[in-house]
Design brief:
The protein contains 8 helices and no strands. By secondary structure, the protein is mainly α. Helix 6 packs across helix 7.
Length: about 140
């Protein structure tokens, strides 16, 4: 399993944005990241300043969205969808996208479930519960 540090994640997204703007070739993971970066122009200024991005603190109290966490969750859901892991996530995300008429909005709904799963795992000290995550996404897709 690949577990990059916070700084590595930030460098990856900043470098991908820099390459995207320059029209430079992208590796496959950067292509996926670039698609989601393009969907989020509100993050472009932060991605353009790597030094500031590496030093930034995104606290809940400030009400600032962490663009690196947000984009990482898009990548996570894209990869889960591609390999259908947990089994059934592809169908649930596809149904959610159909119901919302937007893959982007489906991802945002699935992010709520992904965040809940991660929070519950951290709080309990147990491994992430893929079944609970899938159930949450499926409920959003059918409600």
């Amino acid at each position: 399993m690949f577990a990059p540090s916070q700084l590595e994640v930030r460098r990856f997204f900043c470098a991908t944005y820099r390459k995207l703007r320059a029209g430079a070739p992208l590796i496959p993971m950067e292509v996926i990241a670039a698609d989601w970066i393009s969907e989020h122009p509100e993050y472009h200024a932060e991605l353009a300043d790597e030094e500031a991005a590496l030093a930034a603190v995104y606290s809940v109290e400030e009400g600032r969205t962490n663009p690196f966490l947000h984009l990482s969750m898009h990548l996570t859901i894209t990869e889960q969808h591609a390999i259908d892991q947990p089994h059934g996530i592809r169908q649930a995300v596809d149904l959610l996208a159909s119901r919302r008429n937007s893959l982007h909005e489906a991802h945002h709904a699935a992010m709520d479930c992904l965040g809940e799963m991660i929070w519950a795992s951290q709080r309990s000290g147990l491994p992430p519960d893929g079944h609970a995550y899938l159930d949450c996404v499926s409920r959003k897709a059918t409600s």
